[in-house]
Amino acid sequence: MRALVIGSGLGGLSVAIRLAALGLEVLVLEKLDGPGGRARVLRKNGFTFDMGPTVITVPIFLEDLFATQPGDPRLYPDFPEGENLTHTSRYLKLVPLDPFYRIHFPDGSYFDYNNNREHLLAEIRRLAPEDLEGYLRFERDAKAIFQRGFLELGFTHFGSLLDLLKVAPDLLRMGAVFPLLSFVKRYFKNPKLQRIFSFESLLIGGNPLSVPALYVMIHFVERNWGVHFAMGGTGALVQGLVRKLEELGGRIRYNAPVRRILTHNRRVKGVVLEDGEKIPADVVVSNADYIHTYGELLSPEDRRWHSDLRLKRTRLSMSLFVGYFGFRAQGDEGRNLRHHNVLFSERYEGLLQDILQRKTLPEDFAHYLHLPTLTDPSLAPEGHHAAYTLVPVPHNGSGLDWQTLGPRYMEKALRYLDEAGYLPGLMERLVCTHFITPDYFQWTLNSHLGNGFGPEPILWQTASFRPHNRSEDVKGLYLVGQSYQPGAGLPSVMMSAKITARLIAHDLGLEKAPKALLEVTS
Prior knowledge:
The chain is an alpha/beta fold.
């Protein structure tokens, strides 16, 4: 029995590993010349740049995946016990980061964010002592949301509205359905702490002004399992997953863009590539963007549920401008900066409204500055650093002309890092640069309108309302990755892969699960 996986992103590779362990003949079809999707690697002038995700949390999910063996797809339980990374260490080296992020404010103050409770309390006392009691209440309520929303419901496939209605009263009682920033403001008066405890939804494409407070659980996901870095970069993680897949007998074909998913009588029959080659299959799993999958890869006559109108009404997440740069080191970069840095501008809510609601490009901007060579110097030539700066921008529904804007925006972003004192003298120390815009997401990654994270995780695009991992339109078609349940972010993408593999195993009669779990996946 053959399964085709469209796309070799982290979700595609993860589900391919589990399907290969189930005994299926697995072939991953990748449009580009290498694996990773958004997690591709850029190598230039001796520098290695991760092009996509760099925040690794919940390493037990990786351990669970790397422990997979033939006949043992490890589809249950949800959360493996223990924190031993013995299997992971065969494929890559993970190191914990402390702090997770250094969060910078325009007045020169900062907050070092980690999972040490006493350290967090000390940072709050130093920055905003008036909000210490508020944090204790926030901690209590955020932990309750984490326990219900992540630990208990994280692997639930919400295949119908009834699945959501069963848990809605609990979420309402905890306040998890109200806007995240409004929820945070109940506990913190200081604007800096309001930003610190709401910004993390941006890491999964969510606007703190509109995503549900359910996503406050990210705070405890990180507190529980920390933030890690793969030595060699996220590309090392991708290569580890490729190796694991190949050990299980799975294969990847590169330069193999899919033109259409083939069907007969509303059942999957395979795919046809851009060059006309037809590849038969019993199961097709798409790791591609939601609207690209249904709007481009599936024939209109096959789409009764995912109509053009439904696709058009989908509210897409923001996009990203990412500037990669290598520069000569002065030796003092680690004095003010850390591996992960969040650089806030003077504005917060107004900036979010400009980018995510008005779809305009403001004069000011906030940065996520990634400086991995503070942890792994091998990513740059000796005496140099490799870095990238990521700036949220509107997706291409804005009509912005990035061919014209791109070079100017790159210079503006780098000059800001220099003149604001984060990397003084940067412009004279630059060795190489590269940047990507929403155009890259749209045309290279097939992400509709260049969105960065799939459907925006607002309340009406969460749980049952988020695209399902089993297609309602075509039997044998399944979906995986950030566009689908449970959502974006590395932990969610790996959870998505496990959920999708469970659905396939259940539908094919290949895996027996506890009755209670089958009820939420059928």
